[in-house]
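C-alpha coordinates for Adenylosuccinate synthetase. Go.
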Amino acid sequence: MPALVLLGAQWGDEGKGKATDLLGGSVDYVVRYQGGNNAGHTVVVGDQKYALHLLPSGILSPGCTPVIGNGVVVDPSVLLSELSGLNERGVDTSKLLISGNAHIITPYNVTVDKVTERFLGKRKIGTTGRGIGPTYADKINRVGIRVQDLYDESILTQKVEAALDIKNQVLTKLYNRRAIAVGQVVDELLGYAAQIEQYVADTVLVLNQALEADKVVLFEGGQGTLLDIDHGTYPFVTSSNPTAGGACTGAGVGPTKISRVIGILKAYTTRVGAGPFPTELFDEDGEALRRIGGERGVTTGRDRRCGWFDAVIARYATRVNGLTDFFLTKLDVLTGWEQIPVCVAYEIDGKRVEELPYSQTDFHHAKPVYEMLPGWSEDISKAKTFADLPKNAQSYVKSLEELSGAPISAIGVGPGRDETIEINSFI
Ligand code: IMP
Protein backbone atom coordinates (compact mmCIF):
# COMPACT_ATOMS: atom_id res chain seq x y z
CA MET A 1 0.00 0.00 0.00
CA PRO A 2 2.67 2.57 -0.88
CA ALA A 3 1.16 6.06 -0.70
CA LEU A 4 3.72 8.80 -1.09
CA VAL A 5 3.23 12.52 -0.61
CA LEU A 6 5.60 14.77 -2.51
CA LEU A 7 5.49 18.45 -1.58
CA GLY A 8 7.44 21.69 -1.60
CA ALA A 9 9.49 22.24 1.56
CA GLN A 10 10.03 25.99 0.97
CA TRP A 11 7.93 28.62 -0.87
CA GLY A 12 7.16 26.48 -3.93
CA ASP A 13 9.02 26.19 -7.23
CA GLU A 14 11.49 23.70 -5.74
CA GLY A 15 11.39 21.54 -8.87
CA LYS A 16 8.55 19.21 -7.90
CA GLY A 17 7.70 18.46 -11.53
CA LYS A 18 11.05 16.81 -12.07
CA ALA A 19 10.77 14.77 -8.88
CA THR A 20 7.21 13.62 -9.57
CA ASP A 21 8.07 12.80 -13.12
CA LEU A 22 11.11 10.78 -12.01
CA LEU A 23 8.80 8.58 -9.93
CA GLY A 24 6.07 8.69 -12.58
CA GLY A 25 7.29 5.55 -14.35
CA SER A 26 6.88 3.44 -11.21
CA VAL A 27 3.64 4.86 -9.83
CA ASP A 28 0.12 3.93 -10.82
CA TYR A 29 -1.66 7.15 -9.82
CA VAL A 30 -0.43 10.74 -9.49
CA VAL A 31 -2.89 12.88 -7.56
CA ARG A 32 -3.09 16.64 -7.13
CA TYR A 33 -4.81 17.44 -3.85
CA GLN A 34 -4.90 21.24 -3.57
CA GLY A 35 -4.33 24.48 -5.45
CA GLY A 36 -5.17 24.99 -9.09
CA ASN A 37 -3.55 26.58 -12.10
CA ASN A 38 -1.53 28.85 -9.81
CA ALA A 39 1.01 26.01 -9.75
CA GLY A 40 3.67 25.63 -12.39
CA HIS A 41 5.56 22.42 -12.98
CA THR A 42 8.25 22.27 -15.62
CA VAL A 43 9.02 18.75 -16.77
CA VAL A 44 11.81 18.01 -19.23
CA VAL A 45 11.44 14.71 -21.12
CA GLY A 46 14.22 14.12 -23.64
CA ASP A 47 14.45 17.33 -25.66
CA GLN A 48 10.84 18.25 -24.87
CA LYS A 49 9.94 20.73 -22.15
CA TYR A 50 6.42 20.74 -20.70
CA ALA A 51 4.96 23.44 -18.46
CA LEU A 52 1.98 22.12 -16.52
CA HIS A 53 -0.20 24.29 -14.32
CA LEU A 54 -3.28 22.31 -13.39
CA LEU A 55 -2.69 18.78 -14.63
CA PRO A 56 -0.74 16.33 -12.46
CA SER A 57 2.73 15.68 -13.89
CA GLY A 58 1.90 11.96 -14.06
CA ILE A 59 0.00 12.80 -17.24
CA LEU A 60 3.32 12.48 -19.09
CA SER A 61 3.90 8.88 -17.96
CA PRO A 62 1.88 6.49 -20.12
CA GLY A 63 1.26 3.84 -17.42
CA CYS A 64 0.04 6.32 -14.86
CA THR A 65 -3.49 7.55 -14.07
CA PRO A 66 -3.49 11.29 -13.31
CA VAL A 67 -6.08 12.41 -10.78
CA ILE A 68 -7.40 15.86 -9.85
CA GLY A 69 -8.68 15.42 -6.29
CA ASN A 70 -11.57 17.08 -4.48
CA GLY A 71 -9.25 19.62 -2.83
CA VAL A 72 -8.21 21.17 -6.14
CA VAL A 73 -9.86 24.21 -7.73
CA VAL A 74 -10.39 23.74 -11.46
CA ASP A 75 -10.61 26.41 -14.13
CA PRO A 76 -12.37 24.51 -16.95
CA SER A 77 -11.01 26.73 -19.72
CA VAL A 78 -7.44 26.19 -18.50
CA LEU A 79 -8.06 22.46 -18.10
CA LEU A 80 -9.28 22.11 -21.68
CA SER A 81 -6.52 24.20 -23.19
CA GLU A 82 -3.84 22.32 -21.24
CA LEU A 83 -5.34 19.01 -22.41
CA SER A 84 -5.52 20.05 -26.04
CA GLY A 85 -1.97 21.44 -25.90
CA LEU A 86 -0.72 18.02 -24.74
CA ASN A 87 -2.86 16.16 -27.28
CA GLU A 88 -1.34 18.24 -30.08
CA ARG A 89 2.08 17.06 -28.92
CA GLY A 90 0.94 13.44 -28.98
CA VAL A 91 0.40 12.94 -25.23
CA ASP A 92 -2.51 10.62 -24.41
CA THR A 93 -4.65 12.31 -21.73
CA SER A 94 -7.63 9.94 -21.78
CA LYS A 95 -6.88 8.40 -18.38
CA LEU A 96 -7.35 11.65 -16.46
CA LEU A 97 -9.83 11.52 -13.56
CA ILE A 98 -11.39 14.60 -11.95
CA SER A 99 -13.28 14.58 -8.67
CA GLY A 100 -16.91 15.65 -8.97
CA ASN A 101 -16.38 17.42 -5.64
CA ALA A 102 -13.57 19.66 -6.88
CA HIS A 103 -14.57 23.31 -6.99
CA ILE A 104 -14.75 25.30 -10.21
CA ILE A 105 -12.89 28.58 -10.68
CA THR A 106 -15.58 30.68 -12.31
CA PRO A 107 -14.93 33.80 -14.39
CA TYR A 108 -16.19 35.97 -11.50
CA ASN A 109 -13.64 34.39 -9.12
CA VAL A 110 -10.86 35.51 -11.46
CA THR A 111 -12.35 39.02 -11.64
CA VAL A 112 -12.60 39.25 -7.85
CA ASP A 113 -8.96 38.07 -7.44
CA LYS A 114 -7.71 40.82 -9.74
CA VAL A 115 -9.82 43.68 -8.38
CA THR A 116 -9.10 42.73 -4.76
CA GLU A 117 -5.35 42.80 -5.38
CA ARG A 118 -5.65 46.17 -7.09
CA PHE A 119 -7.72 47.47 -4.19
CA LEU A 120 -5.14 46.28 -1.63
CA GLY A 121 -2.50 48.44 -3.36
CA LYS A 122 0.76 48.32 -1.38
CA ARG A 123 -0.65 45.61 0.89
CA LYS A 124 -1.34 43.22 -1.98
CA ILE A 125 -0.44 39.52 -1.64
CA GLY A 126 1.02 39.28 -5.13
CA THR A 127 -1.35 36.45 -6.11
CA THR A 128 -1.11 34.73 -9.47
CA GLY A 129 -4.43 36.39 -10.41
CA ARG A 130 -5.96 33.04 -11.32
CA GLY A 131 -8.98 33.27 -8.98
CA ILE A 132 -7.58 30.75 -6.49
CA GLY A 133 -8.28 32.62 -3.22
CA PRO A 134 -11.81 33.77 -4.13
CA THR A 135 -12.74 30.22 -5.24
CA TYR A 136 -11.59 28.73 -1.94
CA ALA A 137 -13.38 31.57 -0.13
CA ASP A 138 -16.62 30.60 -1.92
CA LYS A 139 -16.02 26.97 -0.96
CA ILE A 140 -15.68 27.86 2.73
CA ASN A 141 -18.63 30.29 2.50
CA ARG A 142 -20.66 27.42 1.00
CA VAL A 143 -21.44 29.30 -2.19
CA GLY A 144 -18.94 27.44 -4.37
CA ILE A 145 -19.68 25.68 -7.67
CA ARG A 146 -18.51 22.08 -7.90
CA VAL A 147 -17.66 20.03 -10.99
CA GLN A 148 -20.75 17.88 -10.42
CA ASP A 149 -22.98 21.00 -10.57
CA LEU A 150 -22.22 21.30 -14.29
CA TYR A 151 -24.53 18.33 -14.83
CA ASP A 152 -27.65 19.85 -13.22
CA GLU A 153 -28.60 23.09 -14.93
CA SER A 154 -31.20 24.12 -12.37
CA ILE A 155 -28.87 23.60 -9.39
CA LEU A 156 -26.05 25.34 -11.27
CA THR A 157 -28.23 28.38 -11.95
CA GLN A 158 -29.36 28.60 -8.33
CA LYS A 159 -25.79 28.34 -7.10
CA VAL A 160 -24.42 30.95 -9.50
CA GLU A 161 -27.28 33.25 -8.46
CA ALA A 162 -26.42 32.77 -4.79
CA ALA A 163 -22.73 33.38 -5.43
CA LEU A 164 -23.28 36.53 -7.49
CA ASP A 165 -25.88 38.03 -5.19
CA ILE A 166 -23.37 39.64 -2.84
CA LYS A 167 -20.46 39.76 -5.28
CA ASN A 168 -22.33 41.97 -7.71
CA GLN A 169 -23.11 44.39 -4.90
CA VAL A 170 -19.43 44.52 -4.00
CA LEU A 171 -18.26 44.75 -7.61
CA THR A 172 -20.61 47.59 -8.51
CA LYS A 173 -20.76 49.57 -5.26
CA LEU A 174 -17.26 49.11 -3.88
CA TYR A 175 -15.04 48.42 -6.86
CA ASN A 176 -16.98 50.44 -9.39
CA ARG A 177 -17.16 47.56 -11.85
CA ARG A 178 -20.00 46.26 -13.98
CA ALA A 179 -22.28 43.54 -12.54
CA ILE A 180 -21.78 40.01 -13.90
CA ALA A 181 -24.86 38.40 -15.49
CA VAL A 182 -25.93 35.03 -14.05
CA GLY A 183 -27.07 33.71 -17.45
CA GLN A 184 -23.74 34.46 -19.08
CA VAL A 185 -21.79 32.56 -16.43
CA VAL A 186 -24.19 29.61 -16.49
CA ASP A 187 -23.97 29.39 -20.30
CA GLU A 188 -20.18 29.47 -20.23
CA LEU A 189 -20.00 26.75 -17.57
CA LEU A 190 -22.57 24.56 -19.33
CA GLY A 191 -20.45 24.87 -22.46
CA TYR A 192 -17.65 23.00 -20.66
CA ALA A 193 -19.84 20.26 -19.19
CA ALA A 194 -19.86 17.81 -22.09
CA GLN A 195 -16.15 18.27 -22.80
CA ILE A 196 -15.19 17.39 -19.23
CA GLU A 197 -17.76 14.70 -18.48
CA GLN A 198 -15.62 11.74 -19.58
CA TYR A 199 -13.08 12.55 -16.85
CA VAL A 200 -15.43 13.08 -13.90
CA ALA A 201 -15.27 10.25 -11.35
CA ASP A 202 -15.63 9.29 -7.71
CA THR A 203 -11.90 9.70 -7.17
CA VAL A 204 -12.09 8.95 -3.42
CA LEU A 205 -13.41 5.49 -4.16
CA VAL A 206 -10.96 4.94 -7.01
CA LEU A 207 -7.93 5.93 -4.90
CA ASN A 208 -8.90 3.93 -1.84
CA GLN A 209 -9.57 0.87 -3.97
CA ALA A 210 -6.21 1.38 -5.66
CA LEU A 211 -4.46 1.46 -2.27
CA GLU A 212 -6.34 -1.70 -1.18
CA ALA A 213 -5.06 -3.36 -4.35
CA ASP A 214 -1.46 -2.39 -3.46
CA LYS A 215 -1.10 0.14 -6.25
CA VAL A 216 1.46 2.93 -5.86
CA VAL A 217 -0.21 6.32 -5.37
CA LEU A 218 1.73 9.57 -5.41
CA PHE A 219 0.14 12.73 -3.99
CA GLU A 220 1.66 15.78 -5.62
CA GLY A 221 1.50 19.06 -3.70
CA GLY A 222 1.34 22.42 -5.46
CA GLN A 223 3.10 25.55 -4.05
CA GLY A 224 5.00 24.81 -0.82
CA THR A 225 4.98 24.49 2.97
CA LEU A 226 5.56 28.20 3.67
CA LEU A 227 2.64 29.10 1.38
CA ASP A 228 0.23 26.90 3.37
CA ILE A 229 -2.85 28.79 4.59
CA ASP A 230 -2.39 27.40 8.13
CA HIS A 231 1.35 26.82 8.42
CA GLY A 232 2.81 29.38 6.03
CA THR A 233 3.74 33.04 6.28
CA TYR A 234 0.12 34.19 6.55
CA PRO A 235 -1.32 36.34 4.97
CA PHE A 236 1.35 36.00 2.25
CA VAL A 237 0.23 32.48 1.42
CA THR A 238 -2.01 30.61 -0.95
CA SER A 239 -5.54 29.64 0.09
CA SER A 240 -5.10 25.88 0.49
CA ASN A 241 -3.04 23.31 2.42
CA PRO A 242 0.02 22.18 0.44
CA THR A 243 1.36 20.51 3.64
CA ALA A 244 1.07 16.74 4.06
CA GLY A 245 -2.28 16.78 5.88
CA GLY A 246 -3.78 18.45 2.81
CA ALA A 247 -3.19 15.25 0.85
CA CYS A 248 -5.62 13.43 3.16
CA THR A 249 -8.41 16.01 3.03
CA GLY A 250 -7.80 16.96 -0.59
CA ALA A 251 -7.96 13.40 -1.87
CA GLY A 252 -10.14 11.61 0.69
CA VAL A 253 -7.46 9.22 1.89
CA GLY A 254 -6.91 8.58 5.62
CA PRO A 255 -3.58 9.50 7.29
CA THR A 256 -2.96 5.84 8.20
CA LYS A 257 -2.60 5.12 4.48
CA ILE A 258 0.33 7.50 3.90
CA SER A 259 3.64 5.66 3.96
CA ARG A 260 6.17 8.30 2.99
CA VAL A 261 6.32 12.10 2.87
CA ILE A 262 9.02 13.56 0.64
CA GLY A 263 9.93 17.25 0.83
CA ILE A 264 11.37 18.86 -2.28
CA LEU A 265 14.10 21.23 -1.21
CA LYS A 266 16.02 23.60 -3.44
CA ALA A 267 19.74 23.91 -2.65
CA TYR A 268 19.06 27.65 -2.14
CA THR A 269 15.78 29.55 -1.60
CA THR A 270 13.32 31.38 -3.86
CA ARG A 271 9.95 33.03 -3.45
CA VAL A 272 7.41 34.73 -5.75
CA GLY A 273 4.96 37.31 -4.52
CA ALA A 274 5.14 39.42 -1.38
CA GLY A 275 6.00 38.45 2.21
CA PRO A 276 8.97 37.95 4.53
CA PHE A 277 12.08 36.11 3.25
CA PRO A 278 15.03 36.32 5.69
CA THR A 279 17.80 35.09 3.36
CA GLU A 280 16.74 37.17 0.35
CA LEU A 281 19.66 38.66 -1.60
CA PHE A 282 19.60 42.05 -3.28
CA ASP A 283 23.15 41.89 -4.66
CA GLU A 284 24.94 40.24 -7.55
CA ASP A 285 24.78 36.82 -5.82
CA GLY A 286 20.98 37.03 -5.91
CA GLU A 287 21.12 38.09 -9.54
CA ALA A 288 23.46 35.18 -10.34
CA LEU A 289 21.19 32.61 -8.63
CA ARG A 290 18.25 34.00 -10.63
CA ARG A 291 20.16 33.85 -13.90
CA ILE A 292 21.87 30.47 -13.47
CA GLY A 293 18.82 28.86 -11.85
CA GLY A 294 16.41 30.26 -14.47
CA GLU A 295 14.33 31.63 -11.60
CA ARG A 296 11.33 32.99 -13.40
CA GLY A 297 7.80 31.83 -12.54
CA VAL A 298 6.36 29.15 -14.87
CA THR A 299 2.85 30.49 -14.26
CA THR A 300 3.29 34.24 -14.00
CA GLY A 301 6.60 34.88 -15.77
CA ARG A 302 7.60 37.00 -12.77
CA ASP A 303 11.22 37.00 -11.61
CA ARG A 304 11.58 34.97 -8.43
CA ARG A 305 13.19 36.53 -5.38
CA CYS A 306 16.38 34.57 -4.60
CA GLY A 307 18.43 33.89 -1.47
CA TRP A 308 20.71 31.41 0.28
CA PHE A 309 19.56 28.13 1.77
CA ASP A 310 17.58 28.56 4.99
CA ALA A 311 17.87 25.56 7.32
CA VAL A 312 15.39 27.02 9.83
CA ILE A 313 12.69 26.74 7.19
CA ALA A 314 13.78 23.26 6.18
CA ARG A 315 13.58 22.07 9.83
CA TYR A 316 10.12 23.60 10.09
CA ALA A 317 9.02 21.78 6.92
CA THR A 318 10.32 18.50 8.36
CA ARG A 319 8.21 19.06 11.46
CA VAL A 320 4.87 20.24 10.05
CA ASN A 321 4.87 17.63 7.30
CA GLY A 322 6.42 14.72 9.18
CA LEU A 323 8.92 14.42 6.34
CA THR A 324 10.60 11.05 5.88
CA ASP A 325 12.95 12.20 3.08
CA PHE A 326 14.18 15.18 1.13
CA PHE A 327 14.73 15.45 -2.61
CA LEU A 328 17.39 18.16 -2.99
CA THR A 329 17.11 20.00 -6.30
CA LYS A 330 19.28 22.37 -8.35
CA LEU A 331 22.57 21.61 -6.60
CA ASP A 332 24.32 22.33 -9.94
CA VAL A 333 23.22 25.99 -9.76
CA LEU A 334 25.62 26.52 -6.85
CA THR A 335 28.68 25.38 -8.83
CA GLY A 336 31.29 28.12 -9.04
CA TRP A 337 30.90 29.90 -5.70
CA GLU A 338 34.08 29.82 -3.61
CA GLN A 339 32.08 29.82 -0.41
CA ILE A 340 28.37 29.24 0.07
CA PRO A 341 26.54 30.83 3.01
CA VAL A 342 23.89 28.67 4.69
CA CYS A 343 21.45 30.16 7.19
CA VAL A 344 21.55 27.98 10.32
CA ALA A 345 19.54 30.19 12.72
CA TYR A 346 18.02 33.68 12.98
CA GLU A 347 18.87 36.64 15.09
CA ILE A 348 15.71 38.31 16.33
CA ASP A 349 16.01 41.45 18.46
CA GLY A 350 19.57 40.51 19.42
CA LYS A 351 18.75 36.88 20.36
CA ARG A 352 19.73 33.74 18.46
CA VAL A 353 16.68 31.68 17.52
CA GLU A 354 16.99 28.12 16.15
CA GLU A 355 13.37 27.50 15.15
CA LEU A 356 10.86 29.40 13.03
CA PRO A 357 9.23 31.97 15.31
CA TYR A 358 5.47 31.52 15.60
CA SER A 359 5.00 35.28 15.69
CA GLN A 360 4.70 36.95 12.32
CA THR A 361 6.22 40.14 13.74
CA ASP A 362 9.32 38.24 14.89
CA PHE A 363 9.64 36.54 11.53
CA HIS A 364 9.58 39.91 9.78
CA HIS A 365 12.52 40.99 12.00
CA ALA A 366 14.52 37.77 11.59
CA LYS A 367 18.08 38.25 10.37
CA PRO A 368 19.90 35.20 9.04
CA VAL A 369 22.87 33.78 10.95
CA TYR A 370 25.16 32.31 8.29
CA GLU A 371 27.74 29.56 8.32
CA MET A 372 30.11 29.57 5.35
CA LEU A 373 30.57 26.26 3.55
CA PRO A 374 33.34 25.68 1.00
CA GLY A 375 32.13 25.65 -2.63
CA TRP A 376 33.20 23.64 -5.71
CA SER A 377 33.96 24.53 -9.31
CA GLU A 378 33.71 21.15 -11.08
CA ASP A 379 30.75 20.42 -13.39
CA ILE A 380 28.48 18.07 -11.43
CA SER A 381 25.77 17.51 -14.04
CA LYS A 382 27.18 14.13 -15.08
CA ALA A 383 27.37 12.76 -11.53
CA LYS A 384 25.41 9.53 -11.21
CA THR A 385 26.25 8.59 -7.62
CA PHE A 386 26.91 10.56 -4.46
CA ALA A 387 30.58 9.51 -4.65
CA ASP A 388 30.84 11.17 -8.12
CA LEU A 389 30.26 14.58 -6.51
CA PRO A 390 33.28 16.72 -5.56
CA LYS A 391 34.11 16.46 -1.84
CA ASN A 392 32.86 19.98 -1.08
CA ALA A 393 29.54 19.32 -2.83
CA GLN A 394 29.21 16.13 -0.78
CA SER A 395 29.81 17.99 2.45
CA TYR A 396 27.37 20.76 1.41
CA VAL A 397 24.68 18.08 0.97
CA LYS A 398 25.61 16.37 4.26
CA SER A 399 25.46 19.69 6.14
CA LEU A 400 22.02 20.47 4.71
CA GLU A 401 20.84 17.02 5.73
CA GLU A 402 22.08 17.40 9.31
CA LEU A 403 20.61 20.88 9.62
CA SER A 404 17.25 19.97 8.07
CA GLY A 405 16.36 16.87 10.06
CA ALA A 406 15.56 14.26 7.39
CA PRO A 407 17.68 12.18 5.01
CA ILE A 408 18.36 13.53 1.52
CA SER A 409 17.40 10.59 -0.67
CA ALA A 410 17.85 12.15 -4.12
CA ILE A 411 19.79 15.06 -5.58
CA GLY A 412 19.02 16.98 -8.77
CA VAL A 413 22.18 17.97 -10.65
CA GLY A 414 20.58 19.32 -13.85
CA PRO A 415 17.18 19.95 -15.41
CA GLY A 416 16.91 16.71 -17.41
CA ARG A 417 15.04 13.60 -16.32
CA ASP A 418 18.30 11.63 -15.97
CA GLU A 419 20.26 14.31 -14.16
CA THR A 420 19.43 12.96 -10.73
CA ILE A 421 21.44 11.06 -8.13
CA GLU A 422 19.29 8.53 -6.32
CA ILE A 423 20.60 7.66 -2.87
CA ASN A 424 17.65 5.79 -1.31
CA SER A 425 14.86 4.44 -3.44
CA PHE A 426 11.47 6.09 -2.80
CA ILE A 427 9.35 3.05 -3.58
P1 IMP B 1 -2.45 32.60 -5.17
O1 IMP B 1 -2.13 31.16 -4.92
O2 IMP B 1 -2.58 32.94 -6.63
O3 IMP B 1 -3.61 33.09 -4.35
O4 IMP B 1 -1.17 33.47 -4.67
C1 IMP B 1 -0.82 33.54 -3.28
C2 IMP B 1 0.69 33.52 -3.10
O5 IMP B 1 1.20 32.24 -3.43
C3 IMP B 1 1.45 34.51 -3.98
O6 IMP B 1 2.57 34.97 -3.27
C4 IMP B 1 1.90 33.66 -5.16
O7 IMP B 1 3.05 34.18 -5.80
C5 IMP B 1 2.21 32.36 -4.42
N1 IMP B 1 2.11 31.18 -5.29
C6 IMP B 1 1.00 30.62 -5.78
N2 IMP B 1 1.31 29.53 -6.50
C7 IMP B 1 2.63 29.39 -6.46
C8 IMP B 1 3.54 28.41 -6.99
O8 IMP B 1 3.18 27.43 -7.63
N3 IMP B 1 4.84 28.61 -6.70
C9 IMP B 1 5.28 29.65 -5.94
N4 IMP B 1 4.47 30.57 -5.43
C10 IMP B 1 3.16 30.45 -5.67
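The CA atoms of residues 150 and 189 lie 7 Å apart.
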